[in-house]
TrEMBL record:
Keyword Mitochondrion set for record: no
Lineage: Eukaryota, Metazoa, Chordata, Craniata, Vertebrata
Domain of life, per lineage: Eukaryota
Keywords in alphabetical order: Coiled coil
Coiled coil: 97-131
Protein name: Si:dkey-225f5.4
CC terms in the record's Gene Ontology section: kinetochore
Length: 304
């Protein structure tokens, strides 16, 4: 490395100066090795000195420019211009502050309106949620009502079917009742007996003997009404309604099994004395006559 540095240095040196040395000096390698560090250090110092000179030159140029500035005249009334610019800046600042305050006020109003709208929207959302819940409840109620309606329709259809069946049965019973009524009338016509009323423990019948319809010189025999009552011990009590009780027993009692025989006996007694009973009934209808059972005689009411 040292030999190459020496070669480079010799190439850069002037040949005139190199001729001052004889060949013997070039051959002395020890001196060359001593000169290389010295020359390298000198080169470094020269570079530093050059840099310092450049800095000094720049400083001198700067000083010369400041002298020119000092030699130039000052602008007239610098304080007035600064004051005017300060006023302009102050006015702009004031206008800016006012504009900012106006914007802040406008923004505050908008914020208040937004808060009001937000509260209103919140209330509307709450009301909507309530209506939604109410709608769901009404939907459930409507569904329940529909189910109940379907059940009621099914029950109504069933009741209609039962009603129709009942009406059909009622019509059948009506026809049967009419038929039975006809049979009863025919039977009563044959039996010379007509049922007037029926109770839980009493019935009223009317005996119509065959001679009842025949006319005579004295009059006609009226039907005989009887009342038959019975007790829980299967006994009956028969009583005559007509005013001809003096011809018949006033009442008859006995077991229910003898009721038919008792009615037949009353019928036979009533028909056997039909002509006399017809005359007596005619007298009762024409004249005021009273019957005294104790005397077995009829007495005009004028003699009473």
């Amino acid at each position: 490395m040292a030999t190459e540095a020496v070669q480079a240095l010799l190439e850069r040196c002037d040949h005139v100066h190199l001729d001052l040395y004889d060949g013997a000096e070039h051959q002395e390698g020890g001196e060359a090795e001593l000169m290389v560090p010295y020359l390298t250090e000198s080169r470094s110092k020269q570079k530093i000195l050059c840099r310092q000179l450049f800095v000094l030159d720049d400083m001198m140029q700067l000083l010369e420019s400041t002298d020119q500035l000092f030699n130039e005249p000052c602008p007239p009334n610098p304080s007035n211009e600064a004051h005017r610019r300060w006023k302009v800046l102050k006015s702009e600042h004031k206008e800016g502050v006012q504009e900012v305050e106006t914007l802040i006020s406008t923004l505050q109003d908008r914020m208040d309106k937004l808060h009001h709208k937000r509260d209103r929207l919140t209330n509307l959302v709450t009301a909507l949620e309530k209506k939604k819940d109410l709608s769901l409840q009404m939907g459930e109620s409507l569904k329940t009502a529909h189910n109940a309606l379907h059940v009621c329709e099914g029950q109504l259809a069933q009741l209609r079917a039962e009603t129709d069946a009942t009406l059909d049965r009622s019509a059948d019973w009506q026809h049967l009742r009419d038929a039975l009524q006809g049979y009863v009338e025919e039977t009563q016509g044959v039996m010379q007996c007509r049922l007037l009323s029926v109770g839980s423990s009493e019935l009223c019948v009317e005996l119509r003997p065959r001679s009842c319809g025949s006319s005579s010189s004295s009059g006609q025999l009226e039907p005989l009404r009887l009342t038959v009552s019975w007790s829980p011990d299967d006994h009956f009590h028969l009583q005559v309604y007509q005013g001809t009780t003096w011809l018949l027993e006033e009442s008859m009692k006995g077991h229910l099994s003898h009721l038919g025989a008792a009615l037949l006996e009353v019928m036979q007694c009533y028909t056997s004395q039909g002509e006399m009973l017809a005359e007596i009934q005619a007298l009762y209808s024409r004249f005021a006559i009273d019957w005294r059972p104790g005397q077995s005689a009829s007495v005009p009411e004028d003699c009473l």
